[in-house]
Each structure stands twice: as structure tokens, then as C-alpha cells.
Specification:
Elements: E1 8-12, H1 17-28, E2 32-36, H2 42-49, E3 53-55, E4 69-72, H3 81-88, E5 93-95, H4 96-106, E6 108-113, H5 118-131, E7 137-139, E8 151-152, E9 158-163, E10 177-180, H6 188-191, H7 194-205, E11 211-215, E12 228-232, E13 242-249, E14 252-259, E15 261-269, H8 274-289, H9 294-303, E16 312-316, E17 321-325, H10 330-343, E18 349-353, H11 358-372, E19 377-380, H12 396-402, E20 408-410, H13 413-423, E21 427-431, H14 440-448
Parallel strand pairs: 1-2, 1-4, 2-3, 4-5, 6-9, 6-10, 7-9, 10-11, 11-12, 17-21, 18-19, 18-21, 19-20
Antiparallel strand pairs: 7-8, 13-14, 14-15, 16-17
Helix pairs in contact: 5-8, 5-9, 10-11, 11-12
Length: 449
């Protein structure tokens, strides 16, 4: 299979954030693109508005029979009628990661790996390259607030891609450059143990052709035979790249970007979260090593407006702060809540969190409890199952009972809305990777009444 020979593509699970980026890629190449998803969402509606035909029921009468390749996501059940039909009738059926493999073989791929921060760092890198005029083909795991999409094309022979560790997908990539943000335990339903997960990360890193920029302090990196290796940190000056003189003003940051000594002074980052300053250090380091003009990097960072659902200010007024975030791992929650407390130190911090996956909740319940204890008030929604069936004894109660903070509750979505209307929290965060985003607009309207 070669990219230039693909003229028609069908996507099973086209509404996924990664799948939709590839669908847009093929549509921009003037291919015939169509797909299935089980739910109509703003993302599927935007794909339809771009000329992509989508249906929402498993229906063999609606699927195209003349198609070069069928792409599916691992989130789709193996018993899915359309997927099974294509597999049984001799079609070329591949995973999303197989297409990304072809893309990384055909371009200089800048890949971003790690158990958290991938979407923000990759979006920052892609934005710098686009804003500076260098250009790139972007395949993002979130919607860029600057451009309103998760994919764009370019004549530059460069692709910015998230290296997804789920299902070992990242092992199929062929990175020219890569960022590694973290190797915290996650997806243990796939890997079994943290040691096996780390082993697969190392296997991924061994595929890097030229340059690795990795989080300072990560183990097992120094011995890897990668031509160029650099560490980055928020403020640790023993790293190769770091920030200095960080200042907070009205929820935004200015800092100096340093590589042994100051390279770029007074960088402005207008999105919240101290962890995003660290993400910016990694992104700027890649752009700097990719030889993007340093003044163009500074201008791009000042213009960067973030990623939807990544420390996204839904309301930012003197009366109310409402932040929404995709955080679904204890370390992400810890960074999110710590940043909010540092930005709004004298305010009561309330968080509504929806756990994602029974296995993740079971494996990391204590970590979630410890992170959520940073908030003053915690509301837990029931677990969002995604691709999983329930596990006996695993529920949001597992997290609740491990928390030290007594100000905690489990509520339904309707219960959350009643709580918002009654308490009108001054600083509120909603967090999670499930369907908690359905509450964003109702909460926003309620707080602004």
C-alpha cells in the first residue's frame, strides 16, 4: 500500500479525533472519503460540512463497495458489522496507525510521545511551523484554537504527529525528530505492567532517526543510540533547554527560553497552566533545532491560543473563572489543579471530574484521589466506560473513599447542573476524557445568568 495509490477511503469510527485528522488529510488530497460513527458530534458535523459523507448506524447498505482502503480505530468492537464485512470480503483493512506509518515514511516526521502533554506540545510545534511560514502537515489529537481544526496540509515535506502509546500504535511510526514528555504508568490494560510499557517506549525511541527532546530526569534515555539527544525542563538549569524568569500576569506567562544561556527573552504564553510553560519549552526547543527563525518562534508563541479542552478558559471574568480540561490521568490532574491554585491562590477551587475507563480507575484510583485532594471541593461523575465493559467493584466510589478531602460527592450530570445552579462556584474546573464536554455549554450558561 502506498499513499499515492489511495483514491478512496472509508473510516470506521471517523468521529475520533485522530481518525478525523486522517480523514481530512485524504479529503485535502481530493480522495473520496466517507465513514461511520455511532454518534453525531460537532466534529462529525464539521466533517460533513467539508463534504465527507457520514452515517450513524451499522448498515451494510450504506457502505461504499468501491474503496481502496478501510481504516478503523482500535476503539471499534471486533464484531462491528461493517468492519467484519470488509474483512471477510477481501478489502484492504488497516488501523489508523498503519496510515500514520505511511505518512511518517513519506515525510520528515516530528512526533510527540508521552503519557500526557502530547496534544499540547504537538499543537504548539505545528502552530510555530505554520505561523512562521515554514509550514507542516499537522495531525493533532485536539482542535487547535488558532485554526479550529485538527489537521492542515502544507507543501513542506514535514508532518507533526502525536505518537499514541495506546495499542502500541507508536511502534509503527518512523520519527525524524521526537519529543518525549513522560512515561508514567497508563494503559495497563494493554501493557500489563509499567515495566512492559517503558520497554515499548524505549523500542519507539530506538526508531528515531535524528533528534530526541526528552523530559529532564526520565530514565533509560542516556544509553540510546540516537544521533542527537537534548533534555528539557520547566526551570531546572541542568537541562539542555529550560525556562527562566517566569512571571504571571492576568493568567498569562512571560519567560526566558534558555539553552545553556538565554536564547530568547520574554516569551509570552497566553494560555494558563505552569505545565504549559514546560510544554512550550519542549515545542520551542524542537522549532529551534529545526532551525526556525528565533524571532518567528517568539511571534508564534505570542499568537498561540491553545487547544480546545486543554486548560481552556470557558469563562474568564472578575466574577467567574471556568476552565475545562481533557485531563484523565492523575499526573495531568495534579498539574491542572496545581496550576489553577497558583493562578487563583485566594479563591475556592471546585472541580467536576469524570473518570475515564474502568481499568484506569482500578489501576490508578489512589493517584486520582491524591490529585483531587488538591481541590477545595470535588464532584465525581460516574465512570465513562468508552470501549470497556463494567468491572465488578470498580466505580467512582473507589476514588471517593481514598480521598482525604471531606468535601466530595458523586453526582449524575443532572445533579452537577443542579449543584452549579445552587452554588455558583467562583473558580470551577471540569475535567475528563469522556463525554463531560456535553456539560460545558450548560454550565457556562448557568454561571453567566
Amino acid at each position: 500500500m502506498e499513499l499515492q495509490n489511495i483514491h478512496s477511503v472509508y473510516f470506521v469510527g471517523i468521529g475520533g479525533i485522530g481518525m478525523s485528522a486522517i480523514a481530512r488529510y485524504f479529503k485535502q488530497k481530493n480522495c473520496d472519503v466517507s465513514g461511520y460513527d455511532k454518534t453525531e458530534t460537532p466534529l462529525t458535523l464539521s466533517l460533513q460540512a467539508e463534504g465527507i459523507n457520514i452515517h450513524y448506524t451499522e448498515d451494510l447498505n450504506q457502505i461504499p463497495k468501491q474503496v481502496d482502503v478501510v481504516v478503523y480505530t482500535p476503539a471499534i468492537p471486533a464484531s462491528h458489522q461493517e468492519l467484519v464485512w470488509y474483512q471477510q470480503n477481501g478489502y484492504q483493512v488497516v488501523k489508523r496507525s498503519d496510515i500514520l506509518h505511511l505518512i511518517t515514511m513519506s515525510m520528515e516526521a516530528i512526533c510527540v510521545a508521552g503519557t500526557h502533554g502530547k496534544t499540547t506540545v504537538s499543537t504548539m510545534i505545528a502552530h510555530i511551523l505554520r505561523h512562521s511560514g515554514v509550514g507542516c502537515n499537522a495531525f493533532l489529537g485536539g482542535i487547535s484554537s488558532n485554526y479550529g481544526v485538527n489537521h492542515w496540509g502544507s507543501t513542506n515535506h514535514c508532518a507533526v504527529i502525536e505518537a499514541d502509546e495506546y495499542d502500541r500504535s507508536f511502534l509503527k511510526l518512523n520519527p525524524f525528530m521526537s519529543v518525549l514528555t513522560a512515561m508514567d504508568a497508563d494503559h495497563l490494560d494493554i501493557y500489563g505492567t509499567e515495566e512492559e510499557m517503558v520497554r515499548c517506549y524505549i523500542e519507539y525511541l530506538e526508531n528515531i532517526q535524528d533528534t530526541l527532546v526528552y523530559k529532564h530526569g526520565l530514565k533509560n534515555i542516556r544509553t540510546l543510540a540516537i544521533p542527537h539527544k537534548y533534555s528539557y525542563s520547566l526551570q531546572n538549569d541542568s537541562a539542555d533547554f529550560y525556562a527562566a524568569n517566569i512571571q504571571i500576569t492576568h493568567g498569562s506567562y512571560t519567560f526566558d527560553f534558555c539553552h545553556s544561556e538565554k536564547v530568547l527573552g520574554s516569551v509570552t504564553l497566553q494560555v494558563g497552566g505552569m505545565h504549559n510553560v514546560e510544554n512550550a519549552v519542549a515545542a520551542i526547543a524542537i522549532a529551534y533545532l529545526y532551525q526556525v527563525n528565533i524571532d518567528s518562534i517568539a511571534a508564534a508563541m505570542k499568537a498561540y491560543s491553545g487547544v480546545k479542552r486543554r486548560f481552556e478558559y470557558i469563562i474568564k471574568t472578575d466574577e467567574n473563572i471556568y476552565i475545562d480540561d481533557y485531563a484523565h490521568h492523575p499526573e495531568e490532574l495534579k498539574a491542572l489543579l496545581s496550576s489553577a491554585k497558583s493562578l487563583f491562590p485566594n479563591q475556592k477551587l471546585s472541580v467536576v471530574f469524570q473518570p475515564h475507563l474502568y481499568t484506569r480507575t482500578r489501576d490508578l484510583a489512589q493517584g486520582f484521589a491524591d490529585a483531587l485532594d488538591l481541590a477545595d471541593e470535588v464532584i465525581l461523575l460516574p465512570i465513562y466506560p468508552a470501549r470497556e465493559l463494567p468491572i465488578e467493584g470498580v466505580s467512582s466510589e473507589m476514588i471517593l473513599e481514598k480521598m482525604a478531602n471531606p468535601n466530595k460527592h458523586i453526582l449524575s450530570k443532572d445533579g452537577v447542573m443542579q449543584w452549579v445552579q445552587a452554588s455558583k462556584p467562583k473558580v470551577l474546573i471540569t475535567a475528563g476524557a469522556g463525554d463531560i464536554d456535553q456539560l460545558i455549554e450548560p454550565i457556562k450558561k448557568s454561571l453567566m445568568l
